[in-house]
Amino acid sequence: MKDVLCLILGGGRGARLYPLTKYRAKPAVPLAGKYRLVDIPISNCLNSSLNRILILTQFNSASLNKHITRTYKLDSYSQGFVEILAAEQSMEQNDWFQGSADAVRKCLKHFNDTRIKHILILSGDQLYKMDFNYLINFHNKENAEITIACNPVERQHTPELGIMTIGKNQKIKDFIEKPGQDKNISRLSVNIDGKEKFLASMGIYYFKKDILFDLLSNNTKFDFGKEVIPDAIKDRKTYAYIHTGYWKDIGTVQSFYEENLAFTQDLPPLNLFDEEWPFYTRPRYLPLSKINNSTIMNSKIAEGVIIKKAQIKHSIIGLRSFIDDDTVIEDSIVMGNDYYGANENNLSLGIGRNCFIKKAIVDKNVKIGSNVKITNKNNTEKFENEFCVIRNGITVIPKGTVVPDNTEI
Question: Domain residues for 365?
């Protein structure tokens, strides 16, 4: 697949994922205890034998840049690469990316390699497993100019997605971005296995390179879903490739929380244990986790964790986490630490003694003192103070926060 260039969009401000995006780009948000969101599209590319990958970045990109450069060092003989392409100002343009299409437009000058014939555009904040070779083969079979990957969804999931209808050979007839509560949405439905479904765009676009250049040149369209794709359908051969496997867009704190905790299931929807399709991330060479006199139920524990006489239930415990005596953690995500900052006599990072944490996301490098309770006992939907941000009833302790002893949230 040497004629395919993969572009992974690094995302904008990620406001709906705040405060997880307060100090990092959305694709750099930690996932499942040891990964980053961006590892998902990169792994899907590499497992599909697509190894020419650029990540377009702009907002809070330092953490993402560091992860990419430390993780993906491809064999120089393969001619493959995984590289950052940062937003830049030049003599021709002095503003930043204004949307997904504008980001690609401003980088077109970097895609002039004549060996590149097709461009695969991916989002950096989705969970899925997909062999892109099936999409590419479908695209070639139909002699398509543009192919959009789509996923069948239920009616209740349509308001915030791009929904399309198809005709013969899955040629797209209509495309509506975020239809909201449109009562006429039934006209967009398709029948799959006898059930009403709607084809949602996965934000995965496969273009012939010359078509992409033509669509983006000499105009100011900012967004693929809202502007470029709806207009292209009118006079370009645009087809839908239907992907029926698991796919989730991690756009909000609630979806991030739910999809992370799904990894605690016996058979999670995204299988991280498939040796034929590994999900890659940075190798850290951490020691085995140390768990003493503790009870662990329906949880996943990453490497290098120290747990002392604690109870962990239905939770994700991330890299280098430290959890002290008599602490209870339930229905929570503890992202862990970037370095070891805790020992038995000096708790500089980690969770102290006799704490109770429920339905929470504890971001990286947090210090929680002893006798702290994080339970949102009043079921507050939205709140923010110096120690936490609550969204949809989920309590988030932002990165680097220090929560004093005896605090109750």
Answer: 290-403
